[in-house]
From TrEMBL, chains A, B:
It comes from Plantactinospora soyae. This is AcrR family transcriptional regulator. The keyword Acetylation does not apply. Keywords: DNA-binding, Transcription, Transcription regulation. GO terms for molecular function: DNA-binding transcription factor activity; transcription cis-regulatory region binding. Residues 37-56 bind DNA.
Amino acid sequence: MPSPSGPDPTRRSERSRRAILTAAVELLGETGYNELTIEAIAARAGVGKQTIYRWWSGKGAVILDALSDAALAVDASMPDTGDIRTDLYAIIRPTVAELADPRLSATSRALSIETLSDEALAEQVRDRLLRPQLDAVKDRLRAAQLADQVRADVDLDQAVELLFGPMYYRWMFRTGPLSQEYADDVVDLALAAFGIARA
Amino acid sequence: MPSPSGPDPTRRSERSRRAILTAAVELLGETGYNELTIEAIAARAGVGKQTIYRWWSGKGAVILDALSDAALAVDASMPDTGDIRTDLYAIIRPTVAELADPRLSATSRALSIETLSDEALAEQVRDRLLRPQLDAVKDRLRAAQLADQVRADVDLDQAVELLFGPMYYRWMFRTGPLSQEYADDVVDLALAAFGIARA
């Protein structure tokens, strides 16, 4: 027997929310961030524009939620083979490859623009998208520190930025190639800074 | 006796160009990049909007020219005291201090947004604003390499990005404080990567 008040509004909201986020990710892949509009997301999701604006301030906020949901679904933990160099290659190579791909990096580009333009969104990008990855790498470096593979006096917050900062800079300002060889060089240079000479 | 064809049009153009660039820099300091408009620049410079659009594609391009002129006026060469650590402190401390200041870094923010949004402008920002500074630091590191203060196998392009990348990352994603202590740590960590232990 249907409830006299109709379908549960919470479940209906959750269904709309998922439809909107799915539509946003699909359209992002099809058209890229610049061409993405709230109108197109609403049409694809089968909701009204005002439904989206009730929950989100704009397309940056919608994409942030969509990517956070996706990130939560992926295990953020790092591999731990016992060899820090092997494990850092495994995390930095795909990150560089993603930045080297204009299609895959379109989202990073979009979120970087929003981060630079919107203070509130910047904090969310940092806390919901970047932090989980940075913390996973930091945990792995802490284990390496305990195993005497990283100097004890290395600040681990600075250490993760030494890994991610140079490649973001190179990607953002296009100062050089983003090849796998470069990815490995980034790791080797950082490890030299952490006190580990190349074998 | 005035020339029958009136004032020299090249000189008149140069005077307008300078007035526009000066107005742009003044307004940037007063209102910030987001509020900056071509209309306001034109009004301040005493020219028509169409004069600006004849020479520039938008405010990003005007600001880039204004800053390139200013950069040319500053000597891009590095100090060379013979001690690479001292010299790197001298260049990295003010760079971090500028990024830490919301007013001073508004321009970097604006140019970063334009760089991420506009491919043609990205190349100009890199070649006209970043390259001169990166090359000066690279030359200083090359001298340190010849003086056996930096390992011979260090790639100097990667070396300069190891200095500038982490602080841009921290500034952009607000992952930590931009203090003078941090600036010195960046230099010390990079020098450790280049093969120089802290004295």
